[in-house]
């Protein structure tokens, strides 16, 4: 006997509780949605943008520091350069005021060495002896007129240049604070112009002034102060500061450049920032030299040459510095143009790369 089939004891199968993915796995869908999310893109771009800004700032600082380092090194070298001080002969040739100053300084020394004041005081009787100072001043004026003609000659200019070259080594030692100083004393830097006495005597004789006829010219120590002691101290201070700058600024430039190149994501933009830094540094230095020229002339204008010759020295230093800055700016311009070209080419290459992010399948 057969029994009818009993009803199923198990409940029917339930519908699936999780949706079945069609086409694309969950991991790929989530990855695609995460890649195309605008907020996620902004989050990824923030550190890149920060790195680029930091790199640009560091390279800009490197450009400015490098320019200041070049200026410091060049200025210190120019101040101590022999040709800078030999250029003071230009003031003697071209500036009548400098000619008068040099002529009077030499005339005063000759009158002092010969002892005109004592000679006149001994010749004038009694109360007239008090007029010796006036007579001495008149003699000094006559000798000064003769000396102006001597100073204008090429022979005297050659003597001047030779005296500057002979004194230059001791000047460098005085600024460095080393070595034995002979022609630099409490009055400053002096030039030995004794070799010009023969020409001086010749000019005096032509004018009927024979005070040197009975004088042994070789016994006259004709020293003319070029720069006074305070001026030398200021030059020494400048040299020390410039030497420190010629070490510190290049060190800062190297450290900033290396750090900037390591940090910057797009190095071409960082190199452009360095070139701009060179331009800015050169502009700042040009403003400083333009504003400080008169002050520098005033600081070293002591001595026989005064403001005119100090201006020649300062202009000689500044002209060399200007040439150095022009070379630095030319190199920066080349780097800037090369960086711009590289940046344009890199941008075109990036635009030609196809987008590898695929949209999720339907």
TrEMBL record:
Biased composition (Low complexity): 19-44
Region listing for Disordered, in residue ranges: 1-44
Keyword field: Membrane, Transmembrane, Transmembrane helix
Transmembrane segments: 52-74, 241-262, 268-288, 324-345
Listed Pro residues bias regions: 1-18
Protein name in UniProt: Unannotated protein
